[in-house]
Amino acid sequence: MSVLNAFRQKHVQRSKTLPCSTRRRQASPALVVCLERYNETPPESYRDAIAQARQALRRKREIDGQGPVQTGADKLSTESLRFPRRLEMILPIPAPSLSLDDVIEPSLESDWPGGLQQRHRYLRPVVDSLLEGYGAEFVGLLEDDADGLGVWRSKADITVVSQVVNATVPSLLKLCRGDYGSRVLEPGHTLLAVNPAWTEGADVGQLWERALKREAAALIDEGWETVYCYELVRTARGVDGALFRSFPGPWKLFLSEASGESLFGSFGPPRRSSASRQRRKQLLQETDGRPSVREMAEALNAAGTQ
Questions:
Q1: What are the angstrom distances between the C-alpha of 141 and each of 12, 114, 157, 226?
Q2: Cα–Cα–Cα angle for 43, 53, 170, nearest 5°?
Q3: pTM
Q4: Is 158 in a helix, a strand, or coil?
Q5: In sequence order, which residues have a C-beta less than 8 Å from that of residue 41 and are 6 or more positions away?
Q6: Is 91 exposed, middle or buried (0-12, 13-18, 19+ CB in 10 A)?
Q7: Taking residues 6-11, what's their average pLDDT?
Q8: What gap in Å lies between CA 87 and CA 232, rounded to an integer?
Q9: Where do the record's region annotations for Disordered lie (predicted)?
Q10: pLDDT of residue 81
Q11: What distance in Å separates the CA atoms of residue 124 and residue 137, rounded to the nearest whole number?
Q12: How far apart are alpha carbons 149 and 168 in whole angstroms?
């Protein structure tokens, strides 16, 4: 469906949450009220997605500050617990030909001939806007500029990293160990990963770097909670959809229906057209945890043939 397939597939179990009824019994009163009143629809523009993500982060911080929330921390390994609290977001990035006020369109590989470094240039204003009100500043790129691994720090005890892939997980480990400053080690600090594309700890480093793989697994294989996600997806049969989650709501899978354009039988990457700006979204399913790539494909293909 996209270049992040491996990330999605290997992080389905990690992103699972408790069933809604269980969450209401075990969560703080603030979270119970939030769950009962919460209802949000997918964004239309990139700026809409940023605003929703900012609100989701605010809700998460407010609820965590009012009492303990069951997020599976009791199941983390001892080695994993030494790292900061970990949150993640999946945000759409406008292509070079688009602006933040444009309708969200499928991201094509041909849009990014400059790789991660080029993506960073267009992701940076997205993160800058996301962190408005947090007293945040862009610190710079870790290690090699070509890696496109950006770092932001804020006065609200949040460190943000972007576009971490398997090759740059060692740099993220250095950051979490305090090699670039001890602030990330302070109690209550939050590490927010925006658009991470790692797979799992076993894929990090060379075959003989077992210690690195163990440390990477402790950092990236567990302990992460997705507070916001909006991602356009397409099946191999050419059926378009969207995956959406905004804390504390459930994961929602939508079928995207474009007026005047067939969604079935079109192989390859999604096409941009005027019809893509008039997409209707039909809710197909809601789940407590992130659906797998296979589950999304089956649901979208079934709906696309009706």
A1: 29, 16, 19, 23
A2: 125
A3: 0.80
A4: strand
A5: none
A6: buried
A7: 46
A8: 21
A9: 266-291
A10: 61
A11: 11
A12: 8
